[in-house]
Specification:
The structure holds three protein chains of three kinds. By secondary structure, chain B is of the alpha+beta class. Chain B is built from 15 helices and 21 strands. Classes of the chains: A mainly alpha, B alpha+beta, C mainly alpha.
Chain lengths: ~300, ~525, ~325
């Protein structure tokens, strides 16, 4: 950013005094505020799904199939007579759980493996070859191949997508560890007699948190889209569990005549992924301004 | 910088490959091309080796048969000119038509026919019953051969003229001598089209050209029988996996004929005045709910009967096909609309759904809430909709059902498992079968009850098997019908599977196509494009 | 230097081996059986067992792996279980559409994204910047098949400007080639444009805050000259980096696009093969992807020797 004129600071201080730090921060980062709000709404919707005027999302009623949105069925019904509104609301659970689980697991594994390979030259050599190998396989194809090994279930989808994301995180963490290892303060700590794990905990780990956290949000967003793609291909979550991905997959052949089956989950999915991406941007700006400019 | 070079490197490699790799499918002949979206993509080229319908359809393009079924379900000669039956009904002598040639120019000989029949008899469910009745097959001269029976068998011609998988197509002798368990990869037939193998892109496109040397019969076409006159120069099978895209392609005129479309898209296509939506298959298909007869609880006949009492075909068909124009109920184990369909014993299915009776039967069976596994395939809507309806039904009956979703490839592997469910077994799966394959006990695979040798599910009922054997010996149609009723009555008692209704899959083509044959199998001769 | 190259070459062998073993093991433990799919719905278990044996699927892991690896080392990727055609031929048939689609998508993305990113950076902090960036992120958040359907509905069905589906090789005419690629490239390109736009903006911002930019302004250069001639040139590196990484992600997106637009490319070939358990094709394609990735990496690493004097070998 270009250098700000001096009275800008005064205006900012005045705003902070009037509305408090949070509002001030939201004013300066409107996109992040928007993202967090959206994400918050989605999470609340997922948690309170049964109370939002929904019915059993799995209940079929073939007589009522393919009705356009009306007073009874706010988002219409699908080919088996199921209420699309209920399915979309409950579907938020699946997409959010998949996204958050993949993000948590991928960053967790990636962190652990990256730390180890950053320090041990032998494991580095072996593990990074494996990671290189995995990274050269396009993630979607890897996920589909893994899904074809087993039957459809949410756990397997999470596992399949996680595996395709771990190499990126590993590489990231390893890079941080490698660059930090040679830093004077780490050498000083070792010279002072700090144990290996203490060094890890106090010096290395904190510096990995920021980039990993940011990467985690992007992984969450990408995992939700990947779940939709897997369901589209037919290798995703099982059909009786409503997820935005498989609601769209089921409605795809009727897109032009019953667009609402694809439209509503698409809107919700896009909004959620958008929200997560915006939050990720905000985290990136907040945690490390240097990182912000480099990324 | 490195990554940029990397990117350029990959781009250069790709660009180079684009320029160097020979381009696909560029035979630009003049003349009419019929662009057809087939029901699946063509994978195997051996219609004797696989029962897959897409390969059967390919077979009808490229090969020809000795006899064929016409629209009245009668067997007519196709490659055969005349045939004689001896007085004792044991010797059949066949003489081939003139002018029959293979695609490589060689004439069709009787030795080819005998070898082809022998190979077919090793694979086909009907054909496998023939070695029991055939004493020998021998050639008389280049154009004639004989089949000599051990005892009279009135169904011989029906067998040789079989309409659906496996169809006894005629192949050159050296090809037909291929082991029955090895796929034939060549495409030398004597049919009305030639397969252009160089332009075949498996999964995307198959190309056929008119066989100029084919001599069609003089009679008008009638199902697989009659004259197979090809009125276009080239046929292109374009496999478009996305239904919405296929619909749009047909509307835009990028393709001429879409073999099978989802019933729900009919209104979209009917709106367009350049597209005709029709029902090209008068008989349709039957949905099948299949039990595993080896594992509890459906090894108990009362449990199976209970499910049958609870099944409402109207509900299944509405979920599967929607518009009532495209389905009907059929309370028979033989496809409705075929000669052997009847009403015997069909109360459990025909009567209105009776959940109380069903629950009573469940109690009598001693079911204590054990878990059962219902398999479904996410990539097969016909299978999937039946599964979801069934889950609701089982819930209403208080049966503890666990729905397991997989893709079709995994399902048909898993259904081969004889294990209990905690070792990867199953209790219920779904599929559908075209009507001709359920028209008579001779080729009705799901109706066989010979235990371990039967179709997946392995029902065992000696009485049904005995009745079936008697049916083969029936003297005439009346006798066949009586036995069919007896077979069906026993089937409704034994419940090898539950028919969930009959549905037809509509077809759609550009209005400038004429001569589309209405039949249970799709035939591409006689079609003209103006 | 020669030793360096040789060492790097040798280092690629374990990576390829890892991929080969990984993908082969994956398929070995896969529950689906191609024999069952091939045999058709009305086949009996005995049929399937026979086909299974025929395809050599009942042999132990090491035997099958050894057999396949030996073939690969001789340039033989095996034969498709379903169609009986050589895997090499099946892939070669399909490379052209995928390559054409990937390249045109990249071009569309870059043409769209770079100007947007530059403008956003130039007008950093303003409403223009924020809204452009939100649109960029939105593009990245849309599922590509929804975008594809909407585009087809608007441009093919309603307006009739472009074809619905299919692929026409440029050997058959440049105009139909471009027409058929237009919608798929845009559907996929919009999504990658978002990614590239963000990077462009960030990179430009970093460069624009440098002193030499201020010097250029002070010298009296016009804005456009400063932006393009100085800033963009120096910001190009991380932009190119993202494009490079994006190529791997592109293949994932290509799979969906090929399915919706019925383009007979490698992506669809692989997905079909996976769902059908056509092992030789799956093994062949993934091995090829990895080989391409590894070889290009290797070439780039070698080129460092010439480009960057700091690289020690």
């Amino acid at each position: 950013m270009t250098t700000a004129p001096l009275d800008f600071e005064a205006a900012r201080a005045a705003r902070r005094a009037r509305h408090g730090k949070v509002v001030e921060w939201m004013y300066r980062h409107p996109t992040v505020a928007l993202g967090s709000a959206l994400l918050g709404i989605m999470v609340l919707m997922a948690i309170f799904a049964p109370y939002l005027g929904t019915v059993d999302p799995k209940a079929i009623a073939p007589i009522k199939r393919l009705r356009f949105p009306d007073a009874n069925f706010w988002f219409g019904t699908d080919a088996l007579g199921r209420d699309v509104y209920s399915r979309v609301i409950y579907g938020s659970r699946v997409s959010l759980i998949v996204g958050l689980s993949v993000a948590a697991l991928a960053t967790g594994f990636g962190l652990a493996i990256g730390l180890v390979t950053g320090f041990s030259r032998i494991t580095d050599a072996i593990v990074m070859r494996v990671m290189d190998g995995l990274m050269s396989i396009p993630p979607v194809l890897l996920a589909i191949a893994l899904m074809s090994l087993t039957r459809a279930s949410m756990g397997n989808v999470i596992f399949a997508i996680t595996i395709s994301q771990v190499p990126q995180v590993t590489r990231l963490v390893r890079g941080v560890v490698l660059s930090l290892r040679e830093q004077p303060f780490v050498e000083a700590a070792t010279a002072a007699g700090t144990g290996f794990f203490k060094t890890l905990w106090r010096h290395i780990l904190p510096n990995t948190v920021a980039p990993v956290l940011v990467q985690g949000t992007y992984i969450c967003a990408s995992a939700m889209i990947t779940e939709a793609i897997l369901s589209f291909i037919g290798a995703g979550t099982p059909p009786d569990i409503p997820s935005w991905g498989n609601i769209m997959a089921e409605g795809r052949s009727l897109f032009e005549i019953k667009y609402y089956i694809v439209l509503f989950p698409a809107m919700f999915l896009s909004a959620t992924v958008l929200a997560v991406n915006l939050v990720g941007d905000g985290l990136r700006d907040a945690l490390d301004p240097r990182l912000a400019r480099r990324m | 910088m490195g990554q940029f070079l990397r990117a350029t490197g990959v781009a250069a490699a790709l660009a180079l490959s684009v320029a160097l790799v020979p381009s696909i499918g560029h035979a630009q002949s003049g003349g009419k091309t019929l662009k057809f979206i087939p029901e699946a993509d063509l994978r195997s080229l051996d219609p004797i080796w696989t029962t897959a319908y897409i390969t059967r359809n390919y077979g009808y393009m490229v090969y020809d048969t000795l006899f064929a079924i016409d629209a009245n379900y009668k067997v007519q000669p196709q490659m055969v000119e005349t045939w004689k039956v001896s007085d004792d009904q044991l010797t059949y002598t066949f003489t081939l038509r003139d002018g029959l040639k293979w695609h490589d120019g060689m004439p069709v000989k009787s030795t080819d026919c005998v070898a082809s029949l022998q190979r077919w008899m090793k694979r086909d469910v009907f054909g496998q019953t023939l070695p029991d009745v055939i004493a020998e097959m021998k050639t008389v001269d280049d154009k004639s051969f004989q089949i000599i029976l051990k005892k009279p068998f009135p169904l011989l011609l029906d067998a040789i003229g079989k309409l659906s998988s496996n169809v006894p197509f005629m192949m050159p002798e050296r090809v037909a001598k291929t082991d029955a368990n090895t796929q034939v990869t060549e495409s030398i037939g004597s049919g009305p089209f030639k397969f252009v193998k160089e332009e075949w892109v498996p999964g995307a496109k198959a190309v056929f050209v008119k066989n100029a040397d084919y001599v069609p019969r003089k009679e008008p076409p009638s199902w697989a029988a009659g004259g197979k006159v090809v009125k276009v120069d080239k046929v292109e099978w374009d496999y478009i996996p996305d239904a919405q895209t296929a619909a749009n392609a047909l509307i835009a005129g990028e393709v001429d004929w879409w073999q099978q479309l989802p019933q729900d898209l009919v209104p979209l296509l009917s709106k367009d005045k350049n597209v005709t939506v029709a029902n090209a298959d008068p008989l349709g298909s039957i949905g099948v709910l299949r039990f595993n007869h080896e594992q509890p609880p459906f090894d108990n006949v009362k449990m199976r009967q209970a499910v049958m009492w609870a099944v409402d075909q109207k509900e299944y068909m509405t979920a599967l096909a929607g518009n009532p124009e495209y389905w009907k109920v059929c309370y028979s184990y033989f496809a409705c609309g075929t000669p052997l369909a009847n009403d015997a014993g069909n109360a459990p299915l025909a009567a209105p759904r009776d959940l109380n009776k069903a629950k009573e039967l469940i109690k009598e069976a001693g079911y204590k809430g054990e878990r059962i596994v219902v398999m479904t395939a996410t990539d097969q809507p016909i299978v999937n909709s039946q599964a979801l309806v069934t889950m609701e039904l089982l819930k209403a009956l208080g049966i503890n059902a666990d729905l397991q979703a997989m893709d079709w490839g995994t399902l048909i592997t898993r259904r081969a498992s004889h294990e209990p469910i905690d070792k990867g077994g199953w209790n219920i799966f779904f599929t559908w079968v075209v009507a001709p394959d359920m028209a008579s006990p001779a080729l009705h695979a799901p109706l066989r009850t010979n235990g371990k040798a039967a179709w997946f599910g392995w029902p065992t009922d000696q009485k049904l098997e005995d009745l079936r054997r008697q049916w083969f010996d029936a003297k005439d149609l009346a006798g066949q019908k009586k036995l069919a009723e007896a077979i069906q009555a026993e089937a409704f008692e034994e419940v090898p599977y539950v028919p969930t209704g009959m549905f037809v899959i509509p077809t759609a083509y550009r209005s400038n196509l004429k001569g589309v044959i209405v039949a249970p199998v799709v035939f591409l001769w006689n079609v003209d494009k103006s | 230097m020669f030793a360096y190259i040789v060492r790097r070459l040798i280092a690629t062998i374990p990576v390829m081996a890892v991929v080969a073993i990984f993908i082969f093991s994956l398929l070995y433990i896969s529950p689906g059986d191609p024999a069952a799919v091939i045999a058709g719905d009305l086949a009996t278990p005995a049929d399937i067992a026979r086909i299974h044996h025929q395809l050599g699927l009942d042999q132990p892991f090491l035997v099958r792996f050894g057999h396949w690896a030996w073939g690969v080392l001789h340039g033989d990727l095996g034969v498709s279980i379903f169609s009986g055609l050589p895997v090499w031929q099946l892939i070669a048939q399909r490379v052209e559409p995928t390559a054409a689609l990937s390249i045109s998508t990249l071009i569309v993305s870059i043409l769209l994204a770079v100007p947007i990113g530059v403008v956003a950076a130039w007008r950093a902090g303003t409403f223009v910047d924020r809204s452009v960036m939100v649109f960029a992120v939105l593009g990245f958040s849309l599922p590509s098949f929804v975008l594809a359907y909407v585009l087809i509905l608007v441009f093919s069905v309603e307006l009739n400007w472009l074809p619905v589906q299919g692929y026409v090789s440029f050997h058959d005419g440049i105009v139909p080639f471009l027409q058929h690629l237009a919608l798929p490239s845009i559907a996929l390109g919009l999504i990658y444009a978002a990614l590239i736009a963000r990077i462009t903006r960030t990179s430009m911002l970093e460069v624009l805050s440098q002193d030499y930019i201020r010097t250029a302004h002070a010298k009296g250069l016009a804005n456009s000259e400063v932006l393009v001639g100085h800033a963009l040139k120096n910001a190009a590196v991380p932009i190119a980096t993202t494009i490079g990484i994006g190529i791997v992600l592109l293949i994932g997106g290509v799979v969906v696009t090929e399915t919706v637009f019925a383009i007979p490319g490698v992506g669809r070939l692989t997905v079909d093969a996976i769902l059908r358990r056509d092992y030789p094709i799956i093994q062949g394609v993934i091995l090829l992807f990895s080989a391409a990735y590894v070889i290009v990496n290797l070439l780039v690493d070698i080129s460092y020797i010439f480009l960057d004097p700091r690289v020690r070998y």
